[in-house]
Specification:
Elements lengths: L17 H12 L11 E3 L5 H11 L3 E13 L2 E12 L8 H5 L6 E10 L2 H13 L5 H4 L11 E3 L3 E6 L2 E7 L16 H14 L1 E3 L8 E5 L3 E2 L3 E8 L3 E9 L5 E3 L8 E6 L3 E11 L5 E11 L7
Parallel strand pairs: 10-16
Antiparallel strand pairs: 1-8, 2-3, 3-4, 4-7, 5-6, 6-7, 9-11, 11-14, 12-15, 13-14, 15-16
Length: 308
């Protein structure tokens, strides 16, 4: 090696912590069935809030299911949709638990149903792992395995059940805290049986990933932006695009934006410096929750082009 050559240094990886090793092992224990090698299956069920509420309602005769609110957001692992639901008895029914029936079953149960639609199996498994890792207590003391046929990865606690089914990660959890940490709450429904019903629907409505519904941006009206001026970009989305979108500016020194795409499908950008910038826009299908990402090039100039 000559004096002008720079030695190549191999990056030294940080040692894996004991907690991380234990977490990986515990996640492996929660594997009921790994997706088959080479499989490209995905959930084909309509995952819109309206249909999910209908699915819960159909699975629970004698129980009134109400949607109290929902939100959706893009995350590094996929598109996450959360529903806040209540379950209340409407009549004496076999759907009531014995403890709830003895107390009249009048108190509605508040639960949260979260669905994270990921791009691939590995991302769904990572979401499952992170959810387990978010519990600070001893996992073996608070989580137990589910039935073998339930999901791919799955665990349950006294107040929740969570699992993966191909690229989809699901959490169904009670949102009312009990008086004591070790106290089991009273449920007017068998929410774990409800989760099983949901997963069986996902399983029966499976389809190849490449034909699951997706949407994209059909047209984009992108003007040249002038430094110091605000410009409006207009987009035309395909039908069934979710109203929630995600915008990332790759060159923040060239342009900046002060919000997301509006319901009118407009995005306002301000030129910061001359040059070109790339923005990436993610859009999700309103029923499959599968996402598509598209890049657009923005040109910024110092002065407005001369007219005429």
């Amino acid at each position: 090696m000559t004096s002008d050559e720079v030695p190549v240094r191999t990056p030294v990886q940080a040692p894996t912590s004991q907690r991380e090793l234990a977490l990986r092992k515990f996640v492996e224990v929660g594997l009921n069935r790994a997706p088959e090698a080479g499989s490209t299956l995905a959930v084909g069920t309509d995952l819109s809030p309206r249909n999910l509420v209908s699915m819960c309602q159909n699975a629970l005769p004698g129980i009134a299911v109400q949607l109290r609110g929902s939100n959706a957001v893009f995350t590094p692992l996929g598109f996450r949709q959360t529903l806040n639901l209540t379950f209340a008895s409407t009549a004496a029914s076999g759907a009531l638990s014995s403890s709830a029936a003895s107390s009249g079953g009048k108190e509605p149960l508040s639960m949260r149903l979260t669905i994270l639609q990921c791009q691939d199996y590995a991302s769904a498994a990572e979401a499952f792992k992170r959810h387990v890792g978010a519990f600070q207590s001893n996992w073996h003391n608070i989580m137990t395995r589910t039935e073998k046929g339930f999901g791919n990865h799955a665990y349950q606690t006294k107040t929740s059940i969570f699992w993966t089914r191909w690229t989809t990660f699901v959490v169904l959890e009670n949102t009312l805290k009990t008086a004591k940490a070790d106290e089991s709450p009273t449920f007017p429904i068998d929410f774990k049986a409800l989760a099983s019903d949901l997963d069986q629907t996902f399983l029966s409505q499976r389809m190849p990933m490449d034909i699951v519904s997706r949407v994209s941006i059909d047209k984009a009206n992108i003007p040249t932006i002038v430094v110091g001026h605000e410009s409006v970009l207009k987009f035309s989305f395909q039908p069934h695009a979710h109203m929630v979108t995600d915008v990332q500016v790759k060159d923040s020194k060239i342009v900046m934006f002060g919000g997301s795409i509006t319901p009118a499908r407009e995005l306002r950008l301000v030129g910061v410096a001359p040059g070109t910038a790339k923005i990436s826009i993610q859009v999700a299908h309103e029923t499959s929750l599968q996402t598509t990402s598209q890049d657009f090039i923005i040109k910024v100039v110092q002065n407005a082009p001369a007219s005429g």
